[in-house]
Design brief:
This is 8-oxo-dGTP pyrophosphatase MutT (NUDIX family). Its cofactor is Mn(2+); Mg(2+). The chain is 16% helix and 26% strand. The strands form three sheets. Strands 4, 5, 6, 7, 8, 9, 10 and 11 form an eight-stranded mixed sheet that branches. A four-stranded antiparallel sheet has the order 1-12-13-14, with helices on one face. A hairpin with a 4-residue loop joins strand 9 and strand 10. It is globular and about 40 Å long. It starts with a strand and ends in an 18-residue tail after the last helix.
């Protein structure tokens, strides 16, 4: 698959990395290109919830696709607690080439302050093995998206939260592999004790929300297989693609910045189409 960098010019993307971003109150204030940790406090929780409450959520109804949900869990973390990647990265990568020079597939030095939980999926899974993902999976019969996200969070990383932890929902994202994913944003109330299920998750990470504001993030590339731009979120020593990358971008744009830009039209790389 050939990838080519593109600078978006249409109204859908034209303002993505402009100017400065800021938080008020006890949260962080930063100039563009200078990432600082974001305080994990009530002000941040209220800010995210207010933005979600004021959003006209995009719902995808497609009877040809199965419904799934992912948990976007906001937790606390400490700077420097992740200097060593807990996963056997060489085994997990399995010889696959990195997308570009300078990347090694490791997720280190990304923690600090308010964070979200990110999983490294095991290579033994039959569906989307060895990929970065948020805790989640398909809805069981009779489940809501919130029910499924809470259940999958418990099953995959050993974290049990109640429905009262839910702050709101991001937009549905339809995948090439036949799913409509509903992201459920939750407040984890502290660090949480992570216990990844070894059959599904190689390791779980606390990634600081400030990492979503990296100077090189987000990135968009073109591929010959689709007219839509492929989104890439640089994190640690790797690139996070859609659908996870699209969800994380909306977490930044809507949850943190209050922007209502859609992300459901952002493309996935071809390896994620199956």
């Amino acid at each position: 698959m050939a990838l080519r960098a593109v600078i978006p010019t249409n109204h859908f993307y034209h303002s993505f990395n402009k100017g400065a971003w800021a938080f008020t109150g006890a949260a962080a204030v930063a100039a563009y290109g200078r990432a600082v940790t974001i305080s994990y406090d009530d002000a941040l929780r209220e800010r995210i919830q207010t933005h979600l409450d004021g959003h006209d959520r995009r719902v995808v109804t497609d009877p040809t696709k199965r419904h799934a949900a992912v948990a976007v869990v906001i937790v606390d973390s400490e700077v420097g607690e992740d200097r060593v990647d807990p996963a056997p990265v060489e085994d997990w990568i399995g010889g696959r080439p990195m997308p570009e020079p300078g990347l090694d597939g490791r997720m280190v030095d990304v923690s600090g302050g308010a964070s979200f939980l990110l999983c490294r999926r095991t290579s033994r899974l039959s569906s989307h093995p060895a990929q970065w993902a948020l805790p989640g999976g398909r809805l069981d019969p009779g489940e809501t998206a919130i029910d499924a996200a809470l259940r999958e969070l418990d099953e995959e990383v050993g974290v049990s939260l109640s429905e009262s932890a839910v702050l709101g929902l991001l937009d549905d994202y339809p995948t090439r592999s036949g799913y409509v994913i509903t992201p459920v944003v939750m407040w984890g109330d502290g660090r949480l004790d992570l216990r990844p299920a070894p059959d599904e998750v190689v390791a779980a990470y606390r990634v600081g929300l400030h990492q979503l504001h990296r100077e090189d993030s987000p990135r968009f590339v073109t591929i010959p297989e689709s007219p839509r731009p492929v989104v890439q979120i640089p994190l640690g020593g790797d690139l996070i693609h859609a659908p996870t990358g699209a969800v994380l971008l909306q977490l930044r744009w809507l949850g943190l910045e209050g922007r209502h830009d859609p992300v459901d039209e952002l493309e996935q790389p071809v390896f994620a189409w199956r």
